[in-house]
Amino acid sequence: MTADAHSIVSVRDLQVRFQTTDRRATVKAVDGVDFDVRRGETFGIIGESGSGKTTIGRALVFLLKPSAGAILHDGIDPLALPRKQFQNHRRDYQIIFQDPNAALNPRMTILSSVLEPLELAGQGTRAERLARAREAMDRVGLPQEIGERYPHQLSGGQKQRVVIARALTLRPKLIVCDEVVAALDMSIRGDVLNLFADLQRELGLTYVFITHDLAVVSHISERVAVMYLGRFVELGPTESVSERPLHPYTQALLSAEPRPLPSSMRGGERIVLEGEIPSPIDPPSGCRFRTRCRYAQDVCASRVPDWRELVPGHWVACHFADRPNFSPN
Ligand SMILES: Nc1ncnc2c1ncn2[C@@H]1O[C@H](COP(=O)(O)OP(=O)(O)O)[C@@H](O)[C@H]1O
Ligand code: SF4
Ligand SMILES: [Mg+2]
Predict the structure, then answer these.
(1) How far apart are CA 135 and CA 141, in angstroms?
(2) Computed over its alpha carbons, how large is the radius of gyration of the chain?
(3) Pairing mode, if any, of strands 314-316 and 231-237?
(4) How far is the CA of 50 from the centre of ligand 3 (A)?
(5) pLDDT per residue over 280-312, tens digit each?
(6) pLDDT tens per residue across span 100-117
(7) Does residue 142 form part of some domain?
(8) 50, 147, 179, 317: least CB-packed within 10 angstroms?
């Protein structure tokens, strides 16, 4: 397999399966996904809860191993590295989750928490590690005196800044951000998103930004992929996907957004997405979206739609996406 020259991550036919707890069935959480993340960009992944976004994020940083397919980092397969090199390599690819409380030890001071990844990596002298931890706190806008406090003495926004500082101490190339502002008050989400954008400019970071919140994606991502039941249904420049969504699922997601979106993302008619996302244990045949698609035809049950580049850089998986107007049946 080959990677694009500008790709920091190349994903080919990625599949991640889990056994259910009774071991009777297999959950196909990610079931054949291909994409490249370009160095220095923010790549968004959106979709309803249960579509497989977190599983992709964890696989990207090798917190879990793909069941099939490949993930290359900078053109190399990290799983082919000797153990020690693999551990060093993983520090360049970090992940941050929604809940900072889960990431911080309540009995450790903030400074100890920020220092911890450096201590584990055993890099430099103690004084150098301290200097790097303090610099990371500075970068995320935390005053040094906070270092002596404990997590319960901080606000949600401050705690998420601590988690970001912790990830930065290892000077990563890429950070997967999984719903990183979802648990924060609306009033401070913008500040934390701006912090991510500033850090990207200063440090040349690449982000994979996972969210169920379309407003977050429009704020931060250059390109966005729309995920449904273990697969991508659409991928393209954020502006193109939001202004001219080609997939009926994307159209429904955009039209259903209750909160104010930039005018370019506001559709006309509101499309109601009926029913729940089906089980990834036994997904529908053909097009997985067909059980909720108002345009579904017979062919949608028998044939898996091809992944097609209909507009340069804008990909979609729907048999009818190139028809100017879908006609409801
Ligand atoms: N460790 C696991 N064991 C079994 N099923 C899992 C596990 N992790 C995730 N899943 C299932 O995989 C599917 C995708 O989950 P997830 O990646 O968390 O989706 P999202 O982040 O989009 O909400 C869901 O059906 C979820 O229940
Ligand atoms: S392939 Fe068929 S069911 Fe799937 S999104 Fe397109 S029209 Fe709907
Ligand atoms: Mg998730």
Answers:
(1) 10
(2) 21
(3) antiparallel
(4) 7
(5) 999 999 999 999 999 999 999 999 999 999 999
(6) 999 999 999 999 999 999
(7) no
(8) 50
Task: Find the domain containing 33 and state its range.
Answer: 7-92+172-316
120 within a domain of the structure (yes/no): no
Pocket of ligand 1 contains residue 53 by CB under 6 Å: yes
Place of tokens 């429009």: 218
d(CA 165, CA 157): 12
Q: Are 232 and 317 in contact (CB under 8 A)?
A: yes
pLDDT of 266 over the 70 cut: no
Is 281 part of a structural domain of the chain?
yes
For residue 44, the domain's CATH number is 3.40.50.300
In a domain, 145, yes or no: no
With H, G, I as helix, E, B as strand and everything else as coil, classify residue 224: strand
**Tokens at 107, concatenated:** 């009995």
Regarding the beta carbon of 278 and ligand 1, being less than 6 Å apart is answered: no
Q: Do the bridges between strand 7-19 and strand 26-38 make them parallel or antiparallel, or are there none, so unpaired?
A: antiparallel
Q: Which residue shows structure tokens 């909720």?
A: 292
245 lines ligand 2 (CB under 6 A): no
Residue pLDDT, tens place only, 143-197 = 999 999 999 999 999 999 999 999 999 999 999 999 999 999 988 999 999 999 9
**Which residue lies with its CA nearest to atom 18 of ligand 1?**
54
- How many domains does the chain divide into? 1
Residues in the chain, overall count: 329
Would you say the pTM of this structure is higher than 0.85?
yes
Buried residues in 205-226 as b, exposed as e (16+ CB within 10 A): bbbbbbbbebbbbbbbbebbbb
Asked whether the beta carbons of 166 and 117 are under 8 A apart, the reply is yes
Going by alpha carbons, the residue nearest to atom 5 of ligand 2 is 318
